[in-house]
Amino acid sequence: MDIKTLLGRGVEEVIDKKHLETALRSGKKLRVKLGIDPTSPNIHIGRAVLLWKLRAFQDASHTAVFIVGDLTGLVGDASDKDAERPMLTQEEIRANMRTYFAQAYKILDKKKTEVYYNSKWLKKMGFVDVAKMASLFGLHEFEARDVIARRMKAGKRVSFHELIYPLMQGYDSVMVRADVELGGTDQRFNLLTGRRIQELYGQKPQDIVMMDILEGTDGRKMSSSWGNVINITDSADEMFGKVMSIQDTFIKKYFLLATSLPMEKIEKVLRSMPNPRDQKLFLAESVVWQYYDQKIALTARKNFEKKFGKLASRGGGGEIRADLELKKKPGNYNIVDLLVEGHLAASKSEARRKIIEGAVEVDGSKIKDERAPVKLTKNSLIRLGKRFLRIT
Question: How many helices, marked H, and strands, marked E, lie in the chain?
């Protein structure tokens, strides 16, 4: 992979880009670090974005340094949290990380990966060590972070242990002597903290590669705590179906971050398949292929089409087979009432929330206003996520 693609595809920011480009051109073998906290039992494809970037560095002959944060996971990262996350127990962490390395090796080359648990060195730290690192930062720097500023403005609690987390992540960089650290854009503060702590310990500051964030099935950032995830351990059929349920606005982003298709191929697919449903079929097949193989991906597609029918836009001559049916005369109706009456939503509040999330379509058109009447014709099709309601 060329340097432009390595530092470009899916990347939002590089610090220090000029320095890193020079290092890459020099042929120096860099130590590239990625840490993941086992706050849930599964690695989802949002987290896998960073693992695939680490694999790209690995394929370019650099050293992949993978850290499972068995101690940072106890404390919890506040980078993307709108409320304080209770500290996990050691038993929960142990249970969650039981298969973490096995999952990571679905992406990384095991023989070429250095692996660590950060409790190995963090448990040995004392108050003097923490105080020495903490003296580099002012409280105002922590408070200036968007997510923390919002919580404080709203009067939500911010605990002291949340202030410690960036120091722990930064010290990881010292212990593995990282030349580069990978992370999401929501981790900017933590990644920069590592640079300053490395200088404190007499090391050159690491360069930083920040990746874009992948949204989940409900349109919010993919997060295990929200349950909107597509796990890399999901069955092929489950993975395919979840990809088919994402919002149309994220199709190109998924191609970019969740597949390894060349950019020219992605652009060609998007041009040649103007209908979002066709694009998503190709996307879902590509994502499943990424974690299984071509044969399994094709089978998953056939299973999906067998369950829901071939999409008419593909010229298959068939219709989508709906999960549910509702008898209504042609005319204008309130979409919230239809979703509840047709059992696509359990309540009106859930129906409204799904509309806001962009998960509702009527005859292929996304519904954005819960109050605007929708026009039903004979055999109209209402979709909420992966489920379909046929009007008869």
Answer: 19, 13
